[in-house]
Amino acid sequence: MREVLPGPSQLLVLGGGLEPTGQPNQVTQERIDRAYGYAVLHDVGKIVVSGRRSWTDTEVAGLDVSEGQVMRDALLDRGLPAAIVQAESNSNNTVQNFGFSIREGYLDPKLWTGVVTHRFQQARARLIANLTLEQSPRWILAPQPHLEYVRHELAVMPLTLLTIAGIKRGEIDPLLKRNDRVQAASGQLLQLRNGLTDYRRKRTA
Predict the structure, then answer these.
(1) Are 120 and 146 in contact (CB under 8 A)?
(2) Can you list the alpha helix ranges (DSSP code H) found in the chain?
(3) Closest CA to 10 of 100, 133, 103
(4) 27-66, pLDDT tens digit by residue?
(5) First-to-last CA distance in the chain?
(6) Model confidence pLDDT, tens digit, residues 115-141
(7) Which one of 14, 125, 128, 203 is at 20 to 30 Å from 146 when CA atoms are compared?
(8) d(CA 151, CA 9)
């Protein structure tokens, strides 16, 4: 009989993107592999896979799929029981991964949680976990470094710091509302920057 090792009561698997075909990209696939490998060796009562769409790839392809559903299907195909794998499919960023999973009742913030991600995302995810989970999580990290993602993490870290500033542990709704405002302001600034770039390009053409 296989020995089941003790560990967190639940896992939260953070989506890392999809291919235009709707299949997991390399980052997401590595997290699926890591979550499955951990679940078959440990007594995990629940696995929450979280994520909506990857950038605009699946939208461009016209596919109605989510990271959460794709990850759930992959874990079920490997034989994990459907009853323990739940998909949160509305989140577009890491704050929402945690916040929506808790607010929608998939994740219990009182239970010890294992968070499945990569090391490049861990620092930012830790800031969010400290506000949304009542216990420090166990970090279950996929091994590959993916150094190309470090630039993205450095770019979005200031937005995360703005989002969590002044938010107290357990304040899920205020955190999510702040996140919406910060993301909206960031989008407006990006549009302004792109508009100025286009204007300068036309002036010099």
Answers:
(1) yes
(2) 26-39, 57-60, 67-77, 94-103, 119-132, 150-164, 172-204
(3) 133
(4) 999 999 999 999 999 989 999 999 996 555 545 456 678 9
(5) 73
(6) 999 999 999 999 999 999 999 999 999
(7) 128
(8) 33
